[in-house]
Amino acid sequence: MTTGVREQPRDAGRPRPVARLGSAGWLTALVLLAGVGYRLWLLAHATPPTNSDEATMGLAALHIARGEGFPVWFYGQQYMGTLEAYLAAPVFALAGGPSLVGLRLPTLALYAVFLLLAWRLTMRLTGDRWFGLLVVALLALGSDRIVKNQLIAGGGYPEMNAAGVALAVLAVDLATGRPGRRLARWAAWGFLAGLMLWVDPLVLPYVVATGAVLVGFRWRELRGAAGALLGAAAVLGAAPLLLHSLLNGRNPLHAVLAASGANATAGWAERLHGGLLLGPSLGMGFCDPGRCATWQLWWALALPLLLALGAVGAWRALRSPAPPESAGSAGATESGVSARVAAAVRLALVLAAVATVGAYTVSSSAGLTPVESSRYLSCLLISLPALLWPVWTVARDGLRQVADGRRGVRTTLARSVAVVLLVATVGTAAHATWRAAQTAPATRAAEARHAELVGTLRQLGVRHVRAGYWTCNRLTFASAEQVVCAVVDDELRPGFDRYPAYRREVDEAAAPAWVAPAGSPLADVLDERQRAGDLDLVTIDGWRIYLPR
């Protein structure tokens, strides 16, 4: 059984014969199942907590399942495609109605695909099964921010990582000239690239980076049928975006820039703090729910070093000639190309990570809302194999030298630093996962209280209500539109309704009720009206229902 390969794997990117899994393979399979099982357990506990934005996607899926509408964009905006709604619609149709579990089953499947493809990408780039186990183990863990990105059907995030890794795997296969289904692979790469342009442009750095690898290694092939098929498939994937833009004369780029905070202002000190210190630690899964302790910020300090080591190592491998002992043979040529492709893809992943962090840091979102907007860095997980590979090789080769009786101060120090870095990475992510799991019972109890709210409204015969933004669409989705809600702010003024038809229906109703979380500013205002004799109050655990007299 082979436990590792050289820094420049000669067989990376080449077809491999079917082999026994071995210890590393079986452990990887178990860890993969554990990662999926952990998220299944979270789904059973309604964790992470849902919200009105996710309910908006669920309502779109419900409308698709009923044939009542086929939205291109997330309701209420002109960006972020509704792929998750189209994936959940068949589940709703088969289940006979909407549910939070049904909405999240496709996102769970996308996570499983991401984990499998991440392992395959790691093997194609390095050939090291034990390193593949490490990567899968890290991706199987899940802090609060990570599982929110992976499971909540709020638009874009669950599918971006799966698509980004798939683009990288296809790039390796195509750039190395792997035989069989070449045109199908070109079409798949183009379709995924176009599809992600519609779904969410946050993954665009990975589309550009892996596309550059294809151009660099297969530009001659791209001049023929492969290029034409790739372009046609990309247009097909982006068809919803393109058709909507042509028919309505709207540029989705403007909406994306506005959502990123381009029209807001934040100081550079706040942007740098959020983009370079807080964001990477949160976005890559090293922090507790909703906050980052000081000691958990160490990853943000290590990330620039990992990016530099990954870029330098990949560039050197890319510029290295074929192994001299076999130079001149056909096998040496193929091995040299495969090694160079693996190095090029690693370099592409590093550069895409740099572009992602850079774009986030210059946006005002990094300075204004770093805890929540750190989700914009979720694609950095795609680059994990390229980031950790240099550290892994130092730790592995150092251990081999010790086993062979070759020791030195430089070797011992480098190996020690590398081992500590890897252990700290796994340990910090595991701690954040443990803290995220601790929130599950409270989240499940909160979901039960919300289910009681829906049941109480049905018993009272309430059909129309007014409530705050984070209550409305969640309530409408949970009731399968049996209760329709219009948004109001804390002063009872009309708020932001993502689906205007609901407001029209509530405005036309004879006597809509009011709903507010207990202890909220909206509840305080409505309590005054209740004490004045305008409303009757029905209380349940965590919620207050106000009925007009």
Q: Can you tell me about this structure?
A:
- The protein is mainly α and 549 residues long.
- It is built from 23 helices and 5 strands.
- The chain has helices at 22-44, 52-66, 83-95, 100-126, 129-140, 144-151, 157-175, 182-199, 204-222, 225-237, 239-248, 252-259, 268-283, 298-319, 330-362, 364-368, 370-373, 384-403, 409-438, 440-460, 469-478, 500-508, 521-531, and strands at 464-467, 484-487, 513-517, 535-540, 543-548.
- Strands 2-1-3-5-4 form a 5-stranded mixed beta sheet, with helices on both faces.
- The radius of gyration is 26 Å and the shape is globular.
- The N and C termini lie far apart (78 Å).
- The model is unreliable at 1-19 and 324-334 (pLDDT under 50).
Distance between the termini: 78 Å
Number of helices: 23
- Please estimate the helix content: 55-70%
- Main beta-sheet annotation: 5 strands, mixed
Give short descriptive properties of this protein:
single chain, 549 residues, mainly alpha, five-stranded mixed beta sheet, globular, disordered N terminus
Offer a concise description of the structure:
With 549 residues, this protein is mainly α. Helix content is 67%, strand content 5%.
Question: What is the fold's blueprint, element by element?
Answer:
Blueprint: H1 22-44, H2 52-66, H3 83-95, H4 100-126, H5 129-140, H6 144-151, H7 157-175, H8 182-199, H9 204-222, H10 225-237, H11 239-248, H12 252-259, H13 268-283, H14 298-319, H15 330-362, H16 364-368, H17 370-373, H18 384-403, H19 409-438, H20 440-460, E1 464-467, H21 469-478, E2 484-487, H22 500-508, E3 513-517, H23 521-531, E4 535-540, E5 543-548
Helix pairs in contact: 1-4, 1-5, 2-3, 2-21, 3-4, 4-5, 4-7, 7-8, 7-9, 7-15, 8-10, 8-11, 9-15, 13-14, 13-15, 14-15, 14-18, 18-19
